[in-house]
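User: Teach me something about this protein's shape.
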Amino acid sequence: MPKVKEEALQALRIDEGLAEAHVMLAVHEHFYEKNYRTAEQEFKRALALKPNSVDALVWYCFLLARMERFDEAIATVRQAQNLEPLSIPVNHGASWVFYYSRQFDLAIEQLEKALEVDSNNAYTHDFLGQSYRQKERYAEALAEFTKAKELGDDLWSTSALGTTYAMSGRRDEALKMIGELREIAKGRYVSPYFTAIIYAALGDREQTFVWLEKAMEEKNDYLAYLKVEPLFDRVRSDPRFADLVQRVGL
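Assistant: First, the predicted structure itself:
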């Protein structure tokens, strides 16, 4: 991520009016530095230069959602959808805005449309499963995560299987998914966040915060979801959660 900033700034030294460089600078400030005001300024600058930038609109909608400005987030992603209605990333963006705002039926509707465009997109199956899980449609959620795993998305799907097993009372199977993530981590990077959300779904507060602290140490980008992620509802009342939210800048 520091290299992203370095290259974006170099691009802007060449051409201050390059919207794409402002977008990537905003992404860096949002996900890595957690400087949300600076990120918003950069997104606005990008959209002033290029109002129909779909990349800027989609990335900006995530920032707005994480700041709980859901009406603005929906309006922003709808603008992107009007520009590119068949875009899978745009539809994914819309689904996440609905997911974070607890409008799970709308998220499901969005993702079912995305599957009509491409039924073999692993992330679409993963994201659809997330909303099924929150609707307590556990069998359907597990089927979607299993499909995503078959299509090659082993990290999101393994973690998501773990959260779904946990929420549906299948503790041993949830712990098995934590073990599987640890095995994967022997050969490649695995975000601590993926383990943290399984423990959160299990209601294990101590381990949840152990793994969230690991994510905090490495400035993990998923921490930007803390305030709006439904999976943390079971630990949200813990004073350590409020402290973490403050430290992340939310």
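Now, about its shape. The chain is about 75% helix and 0% strand. The two ends are 20 Å apart (CA to CA). If you'd like, I can walk through any region in more detail.
User: That's plenty for now, thanks!
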